[in-house]
Amino acid sequence: MARQKRITIDRRDYYIDLLFYHRRLKCLVAIDLKIGEFEAAYKGQMELYLRYLEKHEQLDGENTPIGLILCTGKNHEHVELLQLDKSNIRVADYLTLLPPKELLAARLHRSIEIARQRLSLKEGQEVARGDR
Question: CB burial class (10 A; 0-12, 13-18, 19+) of residue 65?
């Protein structure tokens, strides 16, 4: 939808690096590109962007906007303490150089295993609640 989307709040300009619309999720997706490792202040900035989008850009029938912060490094404890898993904000690493094939394969297998564990846990919780 936009690159360097300008938003103005209290006569101050801010720029969302990338703004997309996800058709299946039916929501706006704001992406903020950062150089360096994740910092706690990035959460507040993204929350500001998401609340603005929710108030001024979201249309009836659309879901709440999602924010993605892309950094060269993700501080897992920061992400955990900021409870980003309970918000519409996610943090992901981006690579500036392609790592060796073995490392990519190991990360892929680890990610698949984590996804399987989360899915099993979610299914177990649904069964315990009687949702199935």
Answer: buried
